[in-house]
Design goal:
about 1300 residues, 45 helices, disordered N terminus
Length: about 1300
């Protein structure tokens, strides 16, 4: 529901009323400290307490809808447990550790130094666009730098090489120029954004104990002390070591770049290669002249050093940019600049971290160089051109092994077979032609020349067939490694996977190769530079250590992870995770205690802070920065104190902290820990959440290990990725202002529950506004008229059903909340319950609803929706229902066990009503097939003349009973399986049915019935094989006669037995319908009887009284389009075209609906009109589904234009038969939505002219408006002359004055306020 039916103004008014309620309710909560959680003196029993938390968001901007989605999962869970009576702790903190804030602050400072304060940027006068930061679906704990965007560059950015100014980003946050300058200080960010986040979260209705909030980094001395204790303890346990390792590194920042330090490339690891040193044989060409006297090598990076025996050449990219780089005092390596930079940070450069290039080269300069390559059978090979080399992978130089590499094979093949290609790059024949494939590895199925075989098998002819080449490599590479056997060299006969590490070590030890690493994919740091792989000496946490990994796997096995995908993700991460660099030299945070030049990196200070929540309120005294007058000073929090609180250490006798406070902190931790649930975006699974498991198993005993992680997908907004650059973005504050907090929460609950990406739909939020406010209005109305509700205990069938539906809603919603499936909880606890209430209102009819049930519904509905829409529920609870206390702690509603038999009975009733309605419509409209069989003509009547006969057969009999008996005997209820089909058929043949002479005929009916019932039994259980339903069908239908009559519009209704001859006789001429569709248990057969009264004018659903004798040679076609194309559709359906009369816009026929038109065609033309042919023509020409009742209606609507709002349109038309002088007319009134209001059609005796006939039709149209009390109308017809006469009002017709006069007089009598006369001519 994208917008309210009542218009945007009302929509805003409804939204504003919710905002006012929310403000009022939040004050109630604040005044009562409703969400403050206190530990009890005794440890909680299972289920008595709930501790849920959420990764603290990074504070370099405002909270957005992605944060709100993830945090809502924890909020709904906490609210559910609070509602059921648990003691709930839901704390919230703010992450500021790391480099993004510091990097942004430094960037501001540089801009002010360069451009002034406020800065004047280049090209601003040209209309610089403000660059808006692109906020991805970053997880709550991730650091999202405010200076990283996507999308179009501003004009300034375009002129400045892509630079985006931090000042403009700060302006986009709504800050003034005077305020922005303060943010040069990184600590200003820490004091600006967290308080705003608290305001937004309070407005959201988050049930948080705000006393326990804090910010990270050394700005909070208590948390700083906590992190230092954690790091010292890990180091003392040998979990933190100093080591030299390859790591992703930011040259600009001068430190490793972990996942949360990256703008792009999260999860990317170093990829290790072997660089083969292919010596360039002197003399050097002129381009390499400056290198004379030095050892010069082409450096080829490979993942397969074991294949070097088969080298035939080296490949270079002709247009590629290379350089000759010094790797030591005497050796030069030719490679790309990017790979040289990586090597320089891996200490393979004459000047560490600064590659020195002696000569810039292009690939074309290298073609033809003679090379001596390690292990190669060929003593000299040459550098040759390859056009598909990627210079952002490896070194840009590739060794060629055509025996095993499909790319090498096909490129060498092209060079050999295409002289023109060789000539293009100046390749001499002696560099190529002598070199043949050298078998080096045998692979089962592919032989000893696997590349040649797979290329031939896949019919690869060119190096440009990338998809085929990728498939060729997929087929051979893995199989070659796992199953291949070496054919050559000292390890001939060894498996490839055994020989590979031995050969690699040999090459490295001999100095013929170099170990080299680079990022698997491109990684950009948040400072804006491309990262490399560096060999760094720093502090690492030893994740992956075998015993620690085993404990982490044990912890994982005991946890509730809710989804298999989440468990698989953790298992995969534990499989590959290894040492993690935990120190940084740039940014904000806590200093490494034993090495204060370094900071603890942002993912390493956020692994066990959930424990800190348990005591934060005691340390902070409600100040998130730890700057307070609490009785404890930060320096008092020694390691001995932390050990005592969190690890069961000895009482710190030397501590000056009062004993009562120490014991209180210990009690708080032991009461709340372990936490029960941590909710997070799935992207934190591979780092933060796994680190949390590791650290908990290292620092805490088993009974304090985490109990559950619930991961969710990212948040989309209206099925599109959230993006500031496209405008598809909402901050949390904006969402609340636009929809209210409860409507936002409602839509977030509806957005999705799994690990797939969820979708916040604006229409759902708008619909929630309408639903919640309308529900309040309904309750107010009910409470105001409570005295009119039915008193006494609920006793009617509708009462029992509604009470049962309430019980079902309670049970199912409780189960959904327990499973943290909040979308399902919203469905069962709100949508389904609302539908049950609406059905109950209608079912009660004149008797009205039961007061006790209505009050129970309002109570239950208010409680069930309170975890999702707490403000609405609190308002209803206190202001409307006048209940004491707070609904958020009112207790989960209790319910009796659902009556499944009653639910089945109600489903039977509702399904039967739907069936009756459809069959009544079908019987009214009739069918061509029925007429051809000589049955009674389709008859149409007004609703108050319809009598319904519902025939019931409550028990299967005959062959069906035999089938069910056999199936029951052959069904295993526990396993829900049946005996083999041949055994079932053999049993059937032993019955009386099987012994009958016509068994083969009956068998054709038995087979589908048996299949249907077997499926039912497997799905529903053995009760599906009962001969009777678990309730009396006749009893249910008789108890609800009034409801059935009201829903279908019947004057009378009887419930009859299909087995009673007297009851069957009541069907009269319709008995054939009973024979054609006999009732079975669960499927009654309704039949409808009615009569027709004659009248001068007939309602549209009545047939025209055509005198067929007078018109036996004439054909009447009804075309609703007034164009020749559609006329032909009708014309083709008749045997001859004599006297074709076309009603253009005969609105009283086709406009009223498909079924009415068919009646007229069938009655008027009998068998002379080929309806099937007409339908085939229409459906074929207009691509409309055949047998759809919308065929004619859809074609009609294409030609009819809607009037404006609150105007009724009267269409009329008439025809004149020149032979008899008789006229036929029709009129229809439709509202502004195109819905039919009323119709009239008739047959008139001789008239004098077409104009006379048209004027009579126009008069009838106006009379129709008069009868319906319409005052603003449009009268539309197709006779221009008639309209000219009507517009002159006073002028009368010479030949037919009466109708025009009547028309004018009737207009005056109706006091019409607005009339338009228009013609389609």
């Amino acid at each position: 529901m994208a917008s309210m039916d009542t218009g945007k103004g009302t929509s805003r008014a409804r939204r504003d009323s919710l905002l006012a309620i929310e403000s009022q309710v939040q004050k109630w909560w604040d005044d009562s400290d409703i969400f403050q959680a206190e530990a009890k003196e005794t440890l909680p029993a299972p289920g008595e307490k709930f501790f849920g938390n959420f990764p603290f968001p990074y504070m370099n901007g405002f909270l957005h809808l992605g944060h709100a989605f993830s945090v809502s999962k924890c909020e709904f869970a906490a609210a559910y447990h609070r509602l059921r009576g648990a003691n709930v702790l839901f704390p919230f903190a703010f992450h500021c550790t790391g480099m993004p804030i510091k990097a942004s602050a430094d960037k501001l400072k540089r801009e002010i130094e360069r451009f002034g304060n406020p800065p004047v940027f280049p090209s601003e006068s040209e209309g610089q666009e403000i660059a808006i930061p692109e906020v991805e679906n970053a997880s709550e704990g991730a650091e999202v730098a405010p200076d990283k965007f996507k999308g179009k560059k501003s004009k300034a950015a375009a002129k400045s090489g892509g630079q985006v100014y931090q000042w403009e980003i700060m302006r986009s946050f709504g800050l003034s120029d005077a305020e922005i300058a303060r943010f040069q200080d990184p600590y200003e960010w820490l004091h600006f954004f967290p308080p705003l986040a608290v305001e937004d979260l309070k407005a959201f209705g988050l049930g948080v104990d705000w006393r326990r909030s804090f910010v990270t980094t050394d700005v909070n001395p208590f948390f700083d002390s906590f992190v230092q204790w954690q790091m010292r303890k890990l180091k003392s346990m040998g979990k933190i070591v100093k080591d030299v390792r390859y790591t992703i590194y930011s040259p600009l920042d001068g430190q490793p770049c972990a996942d949360h330090d990256r703008a792009t490339g999260e999860g990317v690891q170093p990829q290790e290669y072997t660089i083969i040193k292919m010596e360039v044989v002197p003399p050097f060409p002129p381009k390499l002249g400056p290198l004379d006297g030095k050892k010069v090598y082409l450096g080829a990076a490979t993942l397969r050093p074991e294949t070097m025996y088969g080298q035939t050449n080296a490949w270079v990219l002709p247009d590629g940019e290379y350089g000759a780089y010094e790797i030591n005092e005497t050796e030069i390596l030719v490679m790309t600049e990017r790979s040289a930079l990586n090597l320089a940070y891996q200490k393979i450069s004459r000047v560490p971290e600064k590659p020195t290039c002696l000569v810039k080269l292009r690939g074309s300069d290298l073609i033809g160089l003679p090379l001596k390559s390690p292990l190669s059978v060929n003593e000299i090979i040459y550098a040759l051109p390859m056009l598909t080399i990627l210079t952002d992978k490896g070194t840009g130089i590739v060794t060629s092994v055509p025996s095993d590499a499909p790319d090498d094979y096909i490129n060498l093949h092209v060079l050999k077979t295409k002289p023109a290609f060789r000539a293009k790059f100046g390749v001499k024949d002696e560099w190529v032609m002598p070199f043949e494939i050298i078998p080096i590895i045998n692979i089962p199925e592919f032989g000893d020349k696997p590349a040649e075989k797979v290329c031939n098998d896949l019919k690869i002819q060119s190096q440009n067939e990338k998809e085929k080449l990728a498939e060729a490599k997929r087929l051979t590479y893995l199989k070659g490694f796992t199953e291949g056997t070496m054919l050559i060299g000292e390890y001939a006969g060894f498996k490839v996977q055994e020989a590979k590490p031995k050969l690699r070590s040999k090459l490295l030890e001999s100095g013929e190769a170099i170990m080299y690493s680079e990022p698997e994919k491109r990684v950009m740091s948040r400072s804006g530079d491309e990262c490399v792989v560096a060999l760094t000496d720093q502090w690492y946490i030893t994740y992956g250590e075998e015993e620690w990994k085993r404990l982490s796997e044990e912890c994982l096995a005991s946890m509730n992870l809710f989804f298999d995908e989440t468990r698989h993700g953790f298992e995969h991460t534990l499989g590959w995770l290894n040492q993690w660099a935990c120190s940084r030299s740039f940014g904000l945070g806590t200093r490494i205690p034993w090495d204060p030049d370094f900071l603890v990196e942002s993912l390493s200070d956020s692994t066990i802070y959930m424990a800190y929540y348990t005591v934060a309120h005691i340390l902070h005294d409600q100040n998130m920065y730890g700057k307070c007058t609490a009785p404890i000073a930060p320096q008092q929090m020694t390691d001995e104190v932390w050990e005592f609180i969190f690890c069961g250490g000895p009482y710190p006798t030397n501590s000056s902290i009062p004993s009562l406070i120490l014991k209180k902190m210990e009690q708080e931790f032991n009461y709340w820990y372990p936490f029960d649930l941590r909710v997070s975006g799935k992207d934190l699974l591979q780092n933060h959440l796994t680190f949390s498991i590791y650290n908990h198993t290292a620092l805490f005993p088993k009974h304090h290990w985490p109990r559950g992680f619930r991961c969710n997908g990212h948040m989309m907004l209206n099925a599109q990725k959230m993006s500031k650059s496209t405008g598809n973005f909402l901050t949390l504050k904006q969402a609340i202002e636009e929809y209210s907090a409860d409507a936002t929460r409602f839509s977030l609950a509806d957005a999705g529950d799994g690990v797939d990406d969820a979708n916040f739909v604006s229409d759902t939020a708008n619909a929630a506004i309408l639903r919640l406010t309308k529900e309040i209005a309904w309750m107010e109305e009910i409470l105001a008229t409570d005295s009119s509700l039915r008193r006494g205990p609920p006793s009617a069938f509708a009462d029992r059903v509604f009470e049962n539906e309430i019980n079902i809603a309670i049970k199912m919603t409780e189960q959904n909340f327990q499973n943290y499936m909040f979308r399902e909880a919203l469905k069962t606890g709100f949508y389904d319950l609302q539908a049950a209430r609406d059905e109950y209102r209608f079912s009660c009819g004149i008797g009205g609803m039961n007061s006790d049930l209505v009050w129970r519904f309002m109570d239950v509905q208010t409680r069930l929706i309170s975890p999702i829409c707490p403000h609405y529920s609190e308002f209803v609870w206190r202001e409307l229902l006048k209940k004491d206390g707070f609904v958020v702690k009112a207790g989960f509603p209790t319910a009796d066990s659902p009556d499944l038999k009653l639910k089945s009975a109600n489903k039977y009733l509702q399904d039967s009503i739907i069936l009756m309605r459809k069959l009544l419509q079908k019987q009214i409209s009739g069918s061509k097939k029925g007429n051809k069989k000589g049955g009674p003509p389709p008859t149409a009547v007004t609703e108050d003349k319809i009598i319904g006969l519902v025939y019931v057969n409550e028990e299967f009999d005959g062959w069906k009973a035999d089938c069910l008996t056999i199936l029951r005997n052959k069904f295993d209820a526990e396993k829900k399986t049946f005996a083999p089909d041949n055994e079932i058929m053999a049993a059937l043949q032993e019955t009386s049915v099987g012994q009958s002479a016509d068994f083969k005929k009956t068998q054709k009916l038995c087979m589908p019935f048996l299949r249907f019932k077997k499926d039912d039994a497997i799905k529903l259980g053995v009760q599906a094989l009962d001969l009777r339903l678990p309730f009396g069908e006749i009893e249910i239908l008789l108890e609800n006669l009034d409801l059935i009559k009201r829903q279908i519009g019947l004057e009378g209704l009887e419930i009859l037995s299909a087995a009673d001859p007297n009851d069957r006789a009541k069907a009269g001429p319709r008995m054939s319908l009973l024979d054609q569709n006999p009732p079975t248990p669960g499927n009654p057969t309704p039949i409808f009887l009615f009569s027709v009264e004659n009248s001068e004018y007939w309602n549209i659903i009545k047939p025209f009284p055509f005198i067929l004798d007078d018109f036996s040679k004439r054909r009447y076609l009804f075309d609703c389009f007034a164009d020749e194309t559609h006329i032909h559709i009708f014309r083709d359906c008749f045997a001859d075209e004599t006297h074709i009369y076309i009603f253009r816009e005969v609105v009283a026929l086709l406009a009223a609906g498909f079924w009415a038109a068919i009646q007229i065609l069938e009655i008027c033309f009998d068998n002379m009109f080929n309806w099937d042919e007409w339908l085939n023509n229409v459906t074929g020409k207009f691509d409309i589904e055949r047998n759809s009742q919308d065929v004619v209606c859809r074609l009609l609507q294409a030609s009819w234009s809607k009037p404006s709002f609150d105007v009724v349109k009267i269409n009329f038309d008439a025809s004149l038969d020149q032979g008899s002088g008789c006229s036929h007319f029709g009129c229809v009134a439709r509202n502004w939505q195109g819905n039919m209001v009323q119709t009239v059609a008739g047959f008139v005796g001789p008239v004098e002219s077409v104009l006379h006939a048209e004027s009579l039709a126009a008069y009838q149209g106006l009379l129709l408006a008069f009868k319906l009390n319409m005052t603003r109308i449009i009268v539309e017809g197709d006779n221009l002359r008639l309209f000219r006469e009507l517009l002159q009002k006073g002028r009368s017709f010479v030949r037919c004055p009466s109708p025009i006069g009547h028309f004018s007089n009737l207009m005056k009598a109706m006091n019409i306020t607005s009339i338009s006369l228009c013609t389609r001519e």
